[in-house]
Amino acid sequence: MAMRVTIHDVATHAGVSAMTVSRVVNESPRVSDETRRRVEASIAKLGYVPNRLARGLSQRRTHAFGVIVPDVANPFFTLVVRGVEQVAWRAGYHVILCDTQGNLERERGYLEDMVAFQVAGVLIAPVGDRSRPQLRLLTRNNVPFVLIDRSIAGFDGDLVQGDSVAGARQLIEHLIELGHRRIGMITESPDVSTARDRLQGYREALERGGIELDPELVAESSTIDPDAAAEATLRLLALDEPPTAIFAVNNIAVVGVVEAARRRNLEIPDDLALVCFDDIEHVSRLYPFLTVMAQPAETYGTIATQLLLDRLSGRVGQRRRIVVLPADFIVRKSSGAPAATPASG
Amino acid sequence: MAMRVTIHDVATHAGVSAMTVSRVVNESPRVSDETRRRVEASIAKLGYVPNRLARGLSQRRTHAFGVIVPDVANPFFTLVVRGVEQVAWRAGYHVILCDTQGNLERERGYLEDMVAFQVAGVLIAPVGDRSRPQLRLLTRNNVPFVLIDRSIAGFDGDLVQGDSVAGARQLIEHLIELGHRRIGMITESPDVSTARDRLQGYREALERGGIELDPELVAESSTIDPDAAAEATLRLLALDEPPTAIFAVNNIAVVGVVEAARRRNLEIPDDLALVCFDDIEHVSRLYPFLTVMAQPAETYGTIATQLLLDRLSGRVGQRRRIVVLPADFIVRKSSGAPAATPASG
DNA sequence: CTGTTAGCGCTTTCAT
DNA sequence: ATGAAAGCGCTAACAG
Question: Is B140 on the interface with A (CB under 8 A)?
């Protein structure tokens, strides 16, 4: 139960003041080589580890970021988080992981906590537009932050996102070219910007293709639960005129669609064509099967963190910055394209 | 640039002392309903968020855990992390995510940081046995911790793990029953306990099956890189007497094996049978194909965190606790078992 | 180059 | 039930 050794213990041991030890620890040049060596020896001898809470309290800021996502286990966000962690680490920051499970209340709590922890900044893929009021917690307390993946209606701030409208449009156009006219969409809450945008892309593509949108073909699911997507799919399949193709709003939804198809003994793509947003790395490496709009998930994290670091360093003005990352359209078997080669991807 | 509001601001506003505000915030019963209401009103009015650094400094302990893993993007560890986060959150703790990328130095740095942050405890899937000396950083500073998934030779402390020996044995016996005699193994560094144990299980199964172990059939790969596993597999496939079946040590290695097989135009399981440790949730839901020993990854995280919480609460003695979690043997197509049904899993 | 003083914002301890 | 004083371990701002 030995008391943790403090800067004063080191100072005493080395025969200097606490300030000098602090300077050595912080690599200030204003210390003679002689004392530096003595202090470093004492630090090693005593096993001194500077207390970051004390430092943070003194400096009014910790070298930590909060990263807030709806679900770490969603492969897209997993990679976002890893990207954040990697860049943060290189810059000497730590990462506090906050998994909201798509829950607004929980997100609010986490936002408060990030303020309480005096983090230097926050990276957040918000639950949805309704996150907006609670994000004021950050602005009010001068905590800089960057939105990842999802924008918030009527809110401006740094943002890293993809082009969901164009991406969805391209996926749907692909299906139309293959001859589909009854194209279903499994989406999630319109409170989520990417869902709105992808629905918009879906609409635009249908319109361009001269196909009237049938509202019955659009079924809403959940952000974090594939089972909800499976049920939504079953609803579509039970229609009088069921879809011949489905567009899944993301990598969670697509799991549900596949399961629903299996339950109905439908072969993909023969009985039901399938496209979706987001790739799943392990899945596509093991079975390159899904036709997807693959987004560079990890890059979302690294770029967003870079934006945050830039802001902290003051190297950047007040203006908001929006980074739009390009996605890869990868045609594989699930859409039933004749050109699809078995091993592509 | 408004100064962050402090406990004193609230105190002044409410016409009480800082101590009273503190009591209200910490839900001490020793406050009259009347003052409590006044203070709560002031808190809401001013938007006061208690500073956790100050609190932590004062209490010499933060309500945070460090979770250290070799790679968050490994689906097994992703779920471990989510499990930890969920339980920690429910208990009022936050999680600092540390991704070592299997690097010992980096792990050491993180361990120091966790001490520096005064975390209440650490959950760690160590890089390997060589992590042992640096774990002393935690013990020396009285930071309780729980090992996850990987034990450390000659080290005792709380531990949550699976039965890798038995699991591997069962997988190999399965292959032997199917008639295989040349069974290759893609493993990782013997510094990692699970790799050692699974190799041991492999050995035992061969022995029981009356098959002599051919060292050429055991190829070492990396913890975090599927490509290394692919190369290791290609080495095995290039042997004069190549294996007819392969046992991949984990879900990272199996990706490499599948890719290598594809490159050699080998069909699984017809040309090459395949079994592995760990399931990958999305993969198995989309394409239930791999015969695996599925471990309850998320439970590793939740149980480990529970052990840690127990220790913090003092509800538990000094003795180390070892929890061994059962794995599910799931037979699917990749092993070529005749009984395998297409939709199982 | 080194030391002193005065906090950072909270809680502990002891009064009242 | 409430408050005053002291201190958690560090660093900013001055001295010298």
Answer: yes
CA distance A134 to chain B (A): 12
Cβ neighbour number for residue B143 with a 10 Å cutoff = 22
For A55-69, how does the pLDDT look when each residue is reduced to its tens digit (9 = 90+)?
999 998 899 999 999
Which structure tokens are listed for B330?
A: 């799931």
Kindly state whether residue A248 falls inside one of the protein's structural domains: yes
Other beta carbons less than 10 A from residue A210's beta carbon? 8
Give SS3 for B33: helix
CA distance linking residue A13 with residue A46, whole number of Å: 9
List the domain range (segments joined by +) for residue A112: 64-162+297-325
A343 touches chain B (CB under 8 A): yes
> Is residue A95 one of the residues assigned to a domain?
yes
| Protein CA B17 to sugar C1' D5 (Å) | 13
Chain B closest CA to A55's CA: distance in Å?
9
The integer distance in angstroms from the CA atom of B302 to the C1' atom of C13 is 38
Interface contact B49, partner A, CB < 8 A: yes
Is A55 inside a domain boundary?
A: no
Please provide the average confidence, as pLDDT, over all residues in chain B.
Answer: 94
Residues B52-98: tens digit of each pLDDT = 999 999 998 899 999 999 999 999 999 999 999 999 999 999 999 99
The CATH number of residue B128's host domain is: 3.40.50.2300
Between CA B243 and CA B180 the distance in angstroms is 9
Domain holding B33: CATH number? 1.10.260.40
Answer whether residue A319 shows pLDDT above 90.
no
Q: Residue B111 pLDDT more than 90?
A: yes
Same domain, A90 and A28: no
pLDDT at A135 over 90: yes
Among candidates A53, A60, A142 on the partner chain, residue whose Cβ is nearest the Cβ of B62 = A53
